[in-house]
Amino acid sequence: MENIKKDRTVAIVSYLYLIGWVIAFALYSKNKTELGAYHLRQSLGLLITIHLFVWFGILGKILSVLGFIFIVIGLIYAIQAEKKPVPIVGEFYQSIFKGIA
Fold first, then answer.
1. 8 Å CB contact between 62 and 70
2. Model pTM score
């Protein structure tokens, strides 16, 4: 039970913006788990994507809102301790960031 709590903590904290991701990665480094790695990849992809969208004017702002919705979805999956990809881009993030965690 204790390991599941640590696993979920890494997953949840990873969605709390960049500082949360760094903290989650540090926690993950001490206790490597599949759920933690999965959500670290998902949240990193979302953070990068949202920051890239900001440069695209009004369309970028709309897409950033969509990215924020995806972060909330990912956070819900993390709270439920599920390894489910966020819609549309989740599988892509898992494949391109497979070396991260």
1. no
2. 0.87
